[in-house]
Amino acid sequence: MNSAAQYPKNGPTLAEVISEIRDEVKDFLQTRVQMFKSELREKVSAWRSGVILGAIAAVFGLTAFWLLTLALVGLIAVVFWGSAYAFFFAFLIVGFVWLAMAGTAAFLAVRELRRQGILPEKTIAVLKQDKNWLQQEARTQP
User: Fold this and answer.
1) CA torsion through residues 75, 79, 82, 88, sign
2) Three-state SS for 131?
3) DSSP type of residue 9
4) Closest listed residue to residue 77, CA positions, set 90, 96, 68
5) Which residue, of 4, 30, 78, 123, is most buried by count of CB atoms within 10 Å of its CB?
6) Each residue of 7-32: pLDDT tens digit?
7) d(C-alpha 114, C-alpha 76), whole Å
């Protein structure tokens, strides 16, 4: 006797259900990965132009910095001209001024980076929503 013929089919088989779940999970993960890649591409393209412009600015800025530093040291050395340590004091004063300016700039840079953040916020928000939805679904299942 054929046992399958005795029982009517009530719904999808276990293999069909597992296959459907696997396909849904696969689509779900592909969507999230695509969102992550897209958001990351946007951030990288925005960073790329900023990095190039920043490098150009750094070259010109460093050139100007060294020239202006030497001019300032020469000017301050004139104030101490009678002393054997004229250039020592001039370099010391200019060095501390630049150190203070560098500290201020570093503080502002760190603050800005923390404000902007590096992580893809949209993707993380969607994943958190997905997590909450899955937890809610798990609670409502008998």
Assistant:
1) negative
2) helix
3) -
4) 90
5) 123
6) 556 777 888 888 888 888 888 889 88
7) 38
Q: What's 85's DSSP letter?
A: T
**C-alpha gyration radius of the chain:** 33
Q: Distance (Å, rounded) from C-alpha 71 to C-alpha 86?
A: 14
pLDDT by residue (tens digit) across 84-109? 999 999 999 999 998 999 999 999 88
Which structure tokens are listed for 73? 């040291």
Structure tokens at 60: 């010109």
pTM of the model: 0.45
Helices (H), ranges, 80-120? 86-116
Residue 93 is encoded by which pair of tokens? 């004063």
Sketch the domain layout of the chain as residue ranges.
Answer: 12-135
